[in-house]
Give the backbone structure.
Amino acid sequence: MSAFTDIKTKLTERQAAGLYRRRRVVDSAQSRELIVDGKTLLNFCSNDYLGLASDPRVRNAFQQGANDWGVGSGASHLVNGHTRAHEELEEALAEFTGRPRALVFSSGFAANLGTIAGLLKRSDHIFEDRLNHASLLDGGLISRAHFKRFPHRDYDQLREQLSDIYTESRKLIVSDGVFSMDGTSCDVRTMSDIAATHDAWLMIDEAHSLGVIGEQGRGLVHQTGATTDDVQVLIGTLGKAFGTQGGFVAGTDELIETLIQNARTYIYSTAIPSAIAVATITSLHIAAREEWRREKLAALIQRFRAGAEQLGLEMLDSDTPIQPILLGSSERATEMSQLLEDQGMMITPIRPPTVKRGSSRLRITLTADHTEDDIDQLLSALEITASNLA
């Protein structure tokens, strides 16, 4: 008898527990409104924070890039897939983050896995915030280094864990900049001080902060004034605030050269299409230049939080576009999501294992494309839904 005969049973159990994942087919471009199953819904679950995914200038740049470079890169960067467009994007990312060099990966997930595994070996040590993104946690496991997690933003515990290491092996501290399910931020300065004290490196994933936080949207690390001496490894994604696709690492020349030699997810992956690189250069320029996008986003966040507080909703202390409403059970999160959809709102429920049991939520995300009226409609729908579930 095959050991896989329990697959159907496991799927049934997951469905009964309210944990089943289903894809939705969207019939429109990414924007504040989506057409799903023939219905037009206000979109409150997108990471397109600056509203650049469908910006006409980014679209035009992509089309021109396809005209110039075609639609596929043909091979990995180390074979013949690294074009002048990729080179120019890496130079633009290095300038944007204020670092000597950058290296583009096929995704943020690939950047995290490849970077961690490319820097560490079995005898090394890695320390991660317990609420880090799955790609960071998986990277720690794949590296086969000694892996320890510390409670969320518990830097005293991190200090204790590091104090227990007496070998001369490499030590890498890893944290999200903005935590994707909570919207809270790490303390970059405290962690960099800890890293310096214990001769460790610090790696920060700015997937949800680049484009959104700091002057010209240059991110949390840049906002604190941290250099490559403080935060040696900076990770970013192109598929959120910049509206395109891919991930990258920024740091010193030595770091980038090390990853070119060692990062398997870079070495053995086909390069992203050059047209995406061309489009991303345009979105980087827009993100840096158009401060009104961040100003509008901040105003919308404040408006939503004020209204949610009046409704008595259980929120987390987030001043970012990620605004979770804590609901507890998976069943309640799923039911509330459906009731909101019935009122024209698209908000995906977040359930275990993405978050711990008992902390299922609606992960509301706001973008610069939203309007004040959109926020007011959302708050009205939340009030009606919460009343119906009371």
Notes: The mean pLDDT is 96. Residues 291-311 form the longest helix (21 residues). The chain has two domains: 17-46+291-389, 56-289.
